[in-house]
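hi! just following up on the protien thing from before. the input was this:
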Amino acid sequence: MKPRHKRAALIAGGLAAIGLAAYFVLNAFESNLVFFFTPSQIASGEAPKERTFRVGGMVKEGSLKRDNLTVSFVVTDTAKEVPVSYTGILPDLFKEGKGVVAQGKLDGSGHFTASEVLAKHDENYMPPEAQHAMDQAQLNKAASSLK
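and the predicted 3d structure came back as:
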């Protein structure tokens, strides 16, 4: 084999290895990517069915129900609501009327089954996406009440 052919084979092999590595990295990134949706976006059908994503907002007052380790509650952005169920131990800061972000899947009936629940960690914190969603929902609610 001529040196020119060896060099071309090495370059082709290197490009193939880089392409394969890039494919595996992008595939792993896509499978671990989790999007955030608000209750209003979920109600309008923007959220994926049977795929993991996050929903955030406030825990609706009076919606918390416990049955051993299974907890059900409602997440709201003051405009729309999403029923959520979670089996496990909730964070200490989880309370009604406080901010929450839950990660899980939405079933066909619109019920969200959480695999992880995150609660805010101090009095002033709310995830930026959830705060923006709450502000937007309040603006939409105010605009619709003026009509």
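The two ends are 81 Å apart (CA to CA).
Residues 3-32 form the longest helix (30 residues).
cheers
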